[in-house]
Amino acid sequence: MTATAAEAAAPHDFPLPKILTNPASTPPTLITQGAEGRLYKTTYLLPDIPCALKYRPPKPWRHPVLDQRLTKHRILSEARILSKCRRDGLRVPDVYALDEAAGWLMLEWVQGTPVRVNINQRLGSRTEGIEDDEELKDLMRRIGAAVGKMHSIGVIHGDLTTSNMMLKPPAQQQQTTDGATGLEGEIVIIDLGLASGGVHDEDRAVDLYVLERAFGSTHPRAECIFGEVLDAYRQSYKQAGVTLKKLEDVRMRGRKRSMLG
Amino acid sequence: MAVEIVQLEHVPSSYRIHLALFRNVKNAGFLHQQLLARNADFEYAFIDASTIVSRVHLLSAVFKAVNSSVNGTLRTPNVHSEIVVSLSSSSNIADAYRRFGVSPSTSDLFVVKVTFPSSATPEPPSADSISQHLTDNVEGDAVPATDETIRTITDVRTVRKSYKLNGLAWLDAIKDELLKRQEIERLILGGMALRGV
């Protein structure tokens, strides 16, 4: 599931997962629909704990046994990776609950907006002075540090984009405080549905390459400061230099190592 | 009244959740014995409160157990034993009872009672009768189950051991005790969600 789909989803016609048909203080809202599943905003345990529910509905075109196994596997694999990241001190959404047989995963609702939105708001219609924007460059460095941290604990994201990172504003910050740049806060990496454990420089380099390409097409005017991401990445763990070297190879040949597939 | 009725999100309306917290419990051995004897009058989840870090922690276990009960996927004899087992981050049932359940040395005790209409009891016991039964049988002081009270009861060292949260440098580096506890709670929820899977 990718969060790039229309954020303001139309009123849903989809049948709700069974768990969401039980009573709750506020009705669930469909946030986005991906190829594999749907993302709802709802509540966990109490009315004041918002949560995200990732639901992978049964796929009628698959054999039921295979479908069940794939769904279980994907839910568990995402939950395990999130839990591992959290234990190792990388900021990702908390896992609240899951039911792999029913196909859902309940996660912390991360406040804030996707980094993509913050960058675009900051850029506005500017075409000049972007390479001197220290606040924006600082955000780039926080992105690089977060990705580096993730790689250092042996996790490959698989779909790194500025839409799959949230910028969680500091808790006490008011909406319109003086001097607020809209770029403060903590980077929270989200949607690890395609993530895997990986310790090869190759996998890490491809992860960075995917981010680089996605960044270039999402924020072409800010491409000039993407180097900040890689600089911070270089500082973030010991093997980073080797990965960046590998990135140069990947750039030459593209994401796929073989010519197949 | 000793018990509080807790309304959880996404729980079928036929399910009622009752919660009580007793301090200075004198007869934990007796209560433990009733569970071992499978005394049907003592269908409760009796939890050693020192293993709990917050209401959300306990309620997460209740939610999991109720969800299993609704789906018919209980791993233990009933929803009450399932609550105790749901607290554990491992799939070892005996180990979960031992770590989180009441023991003769328990002095602070959480009691959870989940009721729902079944063929055996179409009319589940009322909150009043549950409250009365607990007042009659638990020798201890009923107190409101607030996070402030829970904080004073938690044995953080044992909790961290139970959930394998030792040796996390970033966690130890947090100076703010409240923040640290919040992070511990978060890690526990993840551990519980992934239990045995």
TrEMBL record, chain A:
Keywords: Activator, ATP-binding, Chromosome, Cytoplasm, Hydrolase, Kinase, Nucleotide-binding, Nucleus, Phosphoprotein, Serine/threonine-protein kinase, Telomere, Transcription, Transcription regulation, Transferase, tRNA processing. The keyword Methyltransferase does not apply. It is an enzyme of class 2 (transferase). Its EC number is 2.7.11.1. It is found in: Chromosome, Telomere; Cytoplasm; Nucleus. One of its GO terms (biological process) is tRNA threonylcarbamoyladenosine metabolic process. It holds the Pfam family Pkinase. GO terms for cellular component: chromosome, telomeric region; cytosol; EKC/KEOPS complex; nucleus. It catalyses: L-seryl-[protein] + ATP = O-phospho-L-seryl-[protein] + ADP + H(+); L-threonyl-[protein] + ATP = O-phospho-L-threonyl-[protein] + ADP + H(+). InterPro entries: Bud32, Kinase-like_dom_sf, Prot_kinase_dom, Tyr_kinase_AS. Its main location: nucleus. Signal peptide: none annotated. The keyword Transferase applies. GO terms for molecular function: ATP binding; hydrolase activity; protein serine/threonine kinase activity. Component of the EKC/KEOPS complex that is required for the formation of a threonylcarbamoyl group on adenosine at position 37 (t(6)A37) in tRNAs that read codons beginning with adenine. The complex is probably involved in the transfer of the threonylcarbamoyl moiety of threonylcarbamoyl-AMP (TC-AMP) to the N6 group of A37. BUD32 has ATPase activity in the context of the EKC/KEOPS complex and likely plays a supporting role to the catalytic subunit KAE1. The EKC/KEOPS complex also promotes both telomere uncapping and telomere elongation. Component of the EKC/KEOPS complex composed of at least BUD32, CGI121, GON7, KAE1 and PCC1; the whole complex dimerizes. NCBIfam families: arch_bud32. PANTHER family: EKC_KEOPS COMPLEX SUBUNIT TP53RK, NON-SPECIFIC SERINE/THREONINE PROTEIN KINASE. Belongs to the protein kinase superfamily. BUD32 family. This is EKC/KEOPS complex subunit BUD32. It comes from Trichoderma parareesei (Filamentous fungus).
From TrEMBL, chain B:
Its main location: nucleus. GO terms for biological process: tRNA threonylcarbamoyladenosine modification. It is found in: Nucleus. The keyword tRNA processing applies. Keywords: Nucleus, tRNA processing. GO terms for cellular component: cytosol; EKC/KEOPS complex; nucleus. It comes from the Eukaryota. InterPro entries: CGI121/TPRKB, CGI121/TPRKB_sf. Transmembrane segments: none annotated. The keyword Lyase does not apply. Component of the EKC/KEOPS complex that is required for the formation of a threonylcarbamoyl group on adenosine at position 37 (t(6)A37) in tRNAs that read codons beginning with adenine. The complex is probably involved in the transfer of the threonylcarbamoyl moiety of threonylcarbamoyl-AMP (TC-AMP) to the N6 group of A37. CGI121 acts as an allosteric effector that regulates the t(6)A activity of the complex. The EKC/KEOPS complex also promotes both telomere uncapping and telomere elongation. The complex is required for efficient recruitment of transcriptional coactivators. Belongs to the CGI121/TPRKB family. This is EKC/KEOPS complex subunit CGI121. It comes from Trichoderma parareesei (Filamentous fungus).
